[in-house]
């Protein structure tokens, strides 16, 4: 938490927001891929 707070002070808000948005998108993509692969496995069996 403290490390994130320090990074927030150093970096501009715009870059921090873009980094957060990219991380959020990556998490969504990873979870959706995992769900799709599970669904395909369930269909095969």
From TrEMBL:
The keyword Transmembrane applies. Keywords: Membrane, Transmembrane, Transmembrane helix. It comes from the Bacteria. The chain crosses the membrane at residues 20-40. This is Uncharacterized protein. It comes from Peribacillus simplex.
């Amino acid at each position: 938490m403290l490390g994130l707070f320090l990074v927030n002070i150093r970096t501009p808000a715009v870059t921090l927001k873009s980094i957060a948005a990219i991380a959020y998108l990556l998490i969504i993509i990873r979870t959706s891929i995992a769900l799709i692969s599970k669904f395909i496995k369930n269909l095969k069996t």
